[in-house]
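Input chain follows. Return structure tokens only.
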Amino acid sequence: MKDCTRICLLVASLCIALAAKKELKEGSVLDSEQEQALPDLSDANSLRELKCGICQGIVMDMAYAINRDETNLKRKLREVEIVEILENVCSHNMNEYGLVLDENSNPTKKWSRGSQTLRAKGGWVTRIAVNACSDIYNEYEEYLVDRAPKSCYIDQEKQTKTCDTGPIVYDICVQGFNWCAVPQSDENKTATTETTKPVDEGSKNEL
């Protein structure tokens, strides 16, 4: 009888867990519970955290795109080409960004634009991304034109490319806009090592 009770309780718990796990797919509309779980924009710290996260993603997108094109073309980009890349990041990538859903399918404060990650986007979420990208582009265009191409170092002997966007993220997101309060340190730097062959867009690390 006790074994039967345990089995029944286990089944009941499993059913509750499955019921709590929402079945969602791309394009689904958030329900009322998910809407309530969205970060509170009236909270200054919450808004700042959101801007910090998207700022890091945008800066890494910009630096990545510049170095990707230089790798593919096997030459340094002209200034006009870099400016075009910065504009394209703001005009195309921002609609892909959204807030990652947690294990209960509720929005978190973590950003992603990965197509395989369910995320809440649209409305004010997308507006934050678009506005942040516009601010970064308007305030730091010349800086990015100069610094972003230098964020990667190619080791010809090993045929590897090491990219470190940490200093750029720090200058723009921490010192510039004061959206991120975390001081620069080795653990906060974003560094990747990749071959000098063209890198597929899908291989880029998510935020």
